[in-house]
Queue: 2 jobs
Job 1
Amino acid sequence: MRRIGLIVAIAFALGAPQGQAASLPVHEAEFARAAPPYVAAAKVIRAAKRGDVRAQAVLGWMYQNGRGVPQDYFLAAKWYQSAATQGHGGAQFELGLLHNKGQGVTQDYVLAYMWLNLSASQAVGEDRDFKVRIRDSVASKMTVAQVALAQQMALDWYKAQGW
């Protein structure tokens, strides 16, 4: 559900009609009033460069999908990585998917599993079930040793964060 919420928020940010902007939170309403996608992209880029974790995740999505910026999986991975290392669950999930497919990064099932596992650990309800199924589908391509390594890497990441 959280992923769907992020996608809906981005869709509104990149093209919600004026009447719908009033029902959005203040920061999303600002994006909704910006007619062309590149205007919204410029605002997201500025916020991402200032260190806004949510903006970094949104910018990764924009680069991944070519919304307001040229499609570029390498830059998508860069911005997802920035947000993911700061604990953004959505960015962790998307970065895991990029590693699974080798888009913008080297295909690496261990890293894919690690990021997907971290994302699933933050999710709840149906969103968690969905993320666990995706993580487990990556695990089906891995050896037992690779899964164990990825799980240890996720645990080490949590310890490094002080969680």
Job 2
Amino acid sequence: MDPWRYSTEGISVALRVTPRGGRDDIDGIGTLANGRTVVKVRVRAIADGGEANRAVTELLAKALRVPKAKVRILSGTTSRLKQIAVDGDPKALGDILRGLTAGKPEKKD
């Protein structure tokens, strides 16, 4: 099952973020201990003063080819597990995400 949901405004994506991950990248899809799937993301920024959150929204905006203003954190601002909303064409955004996470092996945490 995909870790994102479609809505009329765009998509909502479940993320697991690794701050100070050495690079800004999307690592693929992972499965949490509770069976929930998430998109695994790493950023160079530290989790201090919102720097990692800013890096995550910028990474997703760039990867999904949308303006930064179209990406917002719905929940999890102080957690590694975040729910992100991306406004735009839901089908196009889902297709891009599928392409970014395809071919990367699913990992269990």
